[in-house]
Amino acid sequence: MGEANPTPVVSLRGVGKSYRAVRALAGVDLDVLPGEVHCLAGENGAGKSTLIKVLTGAVNRDEGEYRVAGTPVRTGFTPAEARAAGIGVVYQELSLLPDLSVGDNLCLGRLPNRAGVVDRRGQRAAAERMLDRVGLRGLDLSTVVGELPTATRQLVEIARVLGHDAKLVIFDEPTTALSTAEADELLERIRALRAEGVAVLYVSHRLEEMFAIGDRVTVLRDGTHVTTRPMAEFDHDSLIQAMVGRTITNLYPGQRATPGPVRLEVRGLRPVGFPEPVDLTVRAGEVVGLAGLLGSGRSELLRAVFGADPKLAGTVLVDGERVDTGTPRAAARAGLGLLTEDRKESGLMLGLSIEENVAMASLPRISPLGLIRPGRVRRHVRAATEGLRVKFGEWSDPVSSLSGGNQQKTLVARWRATGAKVLLLDEPTKGVDVGAKADIYQVVADLAAAGLAVVVVSSYLPELLGLCDRIVVIREQRVAGELDAATATEEDVLRLASPVGDTSSSHANSAPGTGAAHPEEVQ
Amino acid sequence: MTDVSTTAPKTPRRARREPDDSEILRLSQVFAKGLGGIPVLLLLAFALSLATDSFLTGTNLDNLGRQVSIYAVLAAAELLVILTAGIDLSVGSVVGLAGVVAAKTMFETTGGLPVVWGVLLALLVGAVAGLVNGLLVAFLKLPPFIVTLGMMGIARGTTLLLTQGRTVQPLPEGFATLAGGEFLGVANLIWLMLLVTVVVGLLLRRTVWGRYVYAIGSNAESARLTGVPVRLVQVSAYTLAGLLAAFAGVLLASRLGNGVPTAGDGYELQAIAACVIGGASLFGARGTALGALVGALVVGLLNNGGTLLGVDPFWLQIAIGVLILAAVAAEHLQNLRTRRPAGPTPGQPSQPAPEAAS
Questions:
Q1: What is the pLDDT of residues A256-269, one digit of tens each?
Q2: Where are the domains of chain B?
Q3: How far A207 CA sits from the closest chain B CA (Å)?
Q4: Smallest Cα–Cα separation from A341: which of A303, A384, A398?
Q5: ipTM exceeds 0.95
C-alpha cells in the first residue's frame, strides 16, 4: 500500500515538541491510513512515546500540523477529544482498574444509565459486544480484572479501546509481558482489526513482530523523522541501521582480562517460587548475565542473593566467607550491592540530594560515633563518583534533577562508595538513552576490571551478549542452561529461555483465574 | 540536562572550592529550603511592633516565649515522625498523660517521691507510648494515622482513669520552678525550648540516624535496599517523639502547677500546624528542627498578637487555618516548579528496556 489515496486517519506534518532544553520531537511527519498496520521504530529516547502522547493529546505539540481524518486539530487537543475522535491506545502498562470487574472496566466512563442509575442489562449487552470483537466471548463479566492472566487482560483492554469506536488503535509495546504464543495470538487479533479497516500504529522493540505484521514503518531517531517506507523494503539489518544511524560496534566495551578467583558463590539458593535450588559462581572480574523471559524468575533470583526478598533456603559466600543475607543491610555490609529494575521505586531517594543518595549506604563507615562529618562525606562521595562521568550541577541538587543515565550512575557510585565486591544489576539500562548506555557498559566493564564480580539481568539480549562473559538462562524459575557469551547467539539464548512445549505453556492459557500474575507485572 | 553526548568527563564545576558548601548555609537556602515561615515570622513581628505598644516589651516577649515553648517542644516531637512520612496524633494525649503521671507521682504519696522521680516516670511513660506506636508501624506495617489515633484515645483514657477526671494538685514547690524559674534573666522554658530545638536539629542534620530518618521519609523501600535499618529507625523516631511529648507534658504541668487530665487536648494539631508552616512536608523527608520552631513561633505570635490587638479568637483560628493552607500550597507550587524538569529524559518516562530483538 504505497499511495496515500484514502484520507489518513491521523496525519502529522512537521510536528515538534520540546521539554525545556530537550528536543523530544522535531519536524516529524506521519500518516496512518485506514486498514494499515503502521509500525513505529526507534531506540529508547528516539521520541516514540512523545509521538504517541501528541497523537492522544496527552501532551501538546509545540509546532506543526495535526489532522484527524483530514480535519486540523487545535493545539490544546485533550485526551478526551482524542478519544472522541476515535484514537485509542493500548498501553504497555495496562490501564484497566485491577479491582473492578471486567464488565465495569469495559463500560467505565460511559456506563449505560437511566438518570444516573446503572442500566445493568444495557451494560451487560454492551460489554459482551465488546468482548466478542476480540474473541473473548463467554468471559465472565463479573471476574475481577486483577485475577485475569496478562494476555486476557490485554485483550479486555483492546476490547475497551475498540468499544470507544476507535478508528486508530495505538499499541505501545503490547507484547512485553506476553509469552511467544500469546504474542502470536495478539498479532492475529491485530490482523483482524486491519481487515475491518481499523488503522493500527504499532510500537515494539521486537523487530520480528514488526516484520510479521507491519505494512509500513516510520523510523524515528533522536526525535527526528528518518524515513517512512513499506516494511518490505527493509530487512533486519537495514532497519537497525536506520534506527541507530550508525554502526554500533563500539557500544560494548572490548575484551576483558581473564577472571580471577571466585568472588561470589551462591549455594542451593531457593528464592520463593523456585522449585529447585540454584547454584551460581562468579569470579572476580567476571560479568555474568542472567537471561530469561519476563516472569521467569531472573529478578527474583537476583533479589534473593541480596536478601531483598525472603528466600526458602541457600547460602551466599563472598570471597569464600559465608555472609548473612537475611536482610539487605547485612548483604550491603558483606560487600554486595543491588541496583533494582525500578530505580525510582526501589533505589533512589528522589527528594534527597545527589550527595546523600551516593553516601547513604556508606554513611556509618565514614561517620565515627554516628556523627556526620560533612567534609569527609563530600570527599568520600567525590571519590566514589570519580570516573563515572555523572553530569550534574551541584552536589546538593535533588537526585531527581538528573537524567536516567546519571541517576543510574549515582546508584553505581553508591555501591562503589561502600567498597562493594559484588554488584547485582537488574536492567541497568532501562529507560536510559544510547549515549548513557555506552557509558554504563563502560562503567560495568571498569568495575569488573577492578576486580568486582558483576551479575546483570537484562531483557535485551544484545546487551547481555555484548557485555557479559557468561550467560545463565533462567526458565520458569529454574536454571535452563549456561552459555558462553562470546560464542552464543540470541537464538541460542531464546531457545533455552522459551518454555518447553511452547503452546501448551501454562501462561498461554487464557482461561480466567488460572495463572497468578507474574511478580514483575505487579510492580 | 541530557547525557546523550559522551564528551570528556565534566567533573563537578566546583572542584577547587574546598570549604564544602554543605557547611555554608546561604541566605537563599534559608528561604528556599522549606523555611518560608521565617519571612512570615518577621513580617508578623514587624507588624505587631508597629501596631501595638505592648508587643516589644520584655514582659510580653517573656510571656510569648513561655506560651510558645511547649508548642515548640511538641512540634519538634511531631517533626521526627513527620519526616519519616508518618504522623503522630497521640502527642497531645501524651502531654496530658505525662503531666498527670508526674503530678500523681509527686503528690499522691503525700510528701511522696522526689520531683526527679515524677519527671523520669512521666518521660518513661511517654517513651513507652511512642515505642508502642513505633512497633506497630514498623513491624505490623499499620498506617501511622490509625496507630496513633488509637494511642491518642488510649493515652487520654488512661489519663482520665488515673485522675478520675479530677485535677491533681497541689504539687511541690520545686516542681513549679522547673518551668517558672529563670536562668540569666531568661525563662527556663525558653532555654529548654532552644535546647530541644538544637538537639533535635543536630540529631537530624549531623548524625547518621538523622540522615536515615530523611532517607526513610523519602522512600522507605529504597532506604531498605540501601542497607538502612528501616524498622529500627522508625521505632526510635516514634519513641523519641513520645519522649519529647512527655517532656512537653511535664513542662506544661509544671507551668500550670497541677496535673490537669485534659491538658494537651488538641495540641497534636497545633504541633502538626507548626511543622507544616515551618516547611515540613507530610509526605516525609522535608522539614527541619529550626523550621518547626519557626512554625511554632508563628502560631504563637498570631495568638499573642491577636490578644494584644483584641482580635476575636475565633478569627485567629481562621487565620491559622489559612496560614496552613498557604504554607502547603506554597510548598506544592515549589515542587511543581522544581520537580517538573526533574523527570529523567522527559519525553520517555516509561520506556522499558527493549525486549529481545532477534
A1: 677 889 999 999 99
A2: 32-331
A3: 6
A4: A303
A5: no
